[in-house]
Amino acid sequence: MVRFTDDAVRFIQQKPRTVQSISWYVRICWDNGDTNNVRTSDGGTEWIRGNARGWFAEVVPYPVADRDSLKLDFESGIPYRVEYTHGHTFPGGVIHVSGNGLALEL
Question: Which of 4, 12, 41, 47 has its C-alpha lying 20 to 30 A from 22's C-alpha?
Answer without folding.
Answer: 4
